[in-house]
Amino acid sequence: MSIEQNALDPQLWPLSARREPGGSISIAGIPVADLAAQYGTPLFVIDEADVRSRAKSYQAAFRNSEVPTEVFYAGKAFIATKVVQWLTEEGLNIDVCTLGELEVALRAGVDPSRILFHGNNKSVVELERAVEVGVGRIVVDSFIEIERLANIASAHGVTVQVLIRLTVGVEAHTHEFISTAHEDQKFGLSIASGAALEAAQLVIESDSLSLLGLHSHIGSQIFDANGFEVAAERVIATAVAIRKKFDFTVTELNLGGGMGISYVAGDDPIQVEKMARALYEIVISQCQRVQFPVPRILVEPGRAIIGPAGITVYEVGTVKSVDVSDSQSRRYISVDGGMSDNIRTALYDAQYTVALASRTSEAQLIESRVVGKHCESGDIVIRDAQLSADIAPGDLLAVAATGAYCRSMASNYNHIVRPAVVAVCNGKSEIVLRRETIADVLALDPGAN
What we know:
Layout: E1 18-19, E2 25-27, E3 30-31, H1 32-39, E4 43-47, H2 48-61, E5 69-74, H3 81-89, E6 93-96, H4 99-107, E7 115-117, H5 124-133, E8 137-140, H6 143-156, E9 160-167, E10 189-190, H7 195-205, E11 209-215, H8 226-246, E12 252-254, H9 272-290, E13 296-299, H10 303-306, E14 310-323, E15 329-335, H11 344-348, E16 354-356, E17 365-371, E18 380-388, E19 396-399, E20 420-425, E21 428-433, H12 438-442
């Protein structure tokens, strides 16, 4: 059909994504067909230069001479030692929320003082390790955790710097399952109920804890700053209440992350420069209004840095059409992965952009559903896609913007091995995470050995 049928929207694909003369999509100058042949499929491909560019953009956007700011990469989006090294080389700090993520950051050589530890249910083992290595900040999430951490810090003879995660009662305009600041959920200590002030008192009165500031996270895939304005107002009001009641001034305000990215045509996330300006204006104006000293600002982007830089490459296995009514049929294109490497479609009804990756096609576009190979009717990668009528077994499909929350949420469902992750840069590729093998999976089963 038209040239546009095979075009790649630069808003959706990694910065270096191109169509090669032979038709294959390439990333950093390497055709994905070559990567698939070398590393197998499914395959996650990350554009290193894209990741570094986005990290630089956040560092530049959140550099304000009037307000000290620190940017923490949210490791939950995707973490591996190589990626952590890229980001810390670009000046970002690291946000972790489990012992496993902490160990990756440490083995990547991150100075523990540049690590922030999250989580609503940190175990004693996790807190012990965080205190032992000297993690810079721990975000406390409950009264039990405050007591637990205070005892561990006291036993080690150290003072641990903490932030209190607040439930601010703001629900971002996003999917219900990824909104995290309304009252009826597991995260944080409620401002409305008075739990936040009670937590502040416990930390202030502790001999082994030091209250740095307050933390708020209002959700994910946020496209504007409106929710941050309401959240910041309530967090700063809490800071004022702490100062008034306890004669104590917090010096940090962590606004969390959640900045959105483009997954499909028409998505219009706010640019990081505009978001940064908006957040600074919100915090400065709110502080001036209540005569509170402007605190250091912390932000936690994850998806916004790694998401657009990654794609997933699949091989088509089967193609069939199913009659869904007397006048309509649906074509199912089955690939060699699915919900084991991308659970987001099943969990959140997430939408993605897919393209024929191993060649171009002039064939008619047909409404298609890209599905995985798992024993679940909900094993859908792309619910509705326009794909060429001549797609056949052996073709490669590429799904854009899968750098975040795909490999990090991957599973071994149906005993399928988790895919490799490779980084590409300047015509070269390297393994970030190797592909699992059946031997890896069976190694956990004593009866199989």
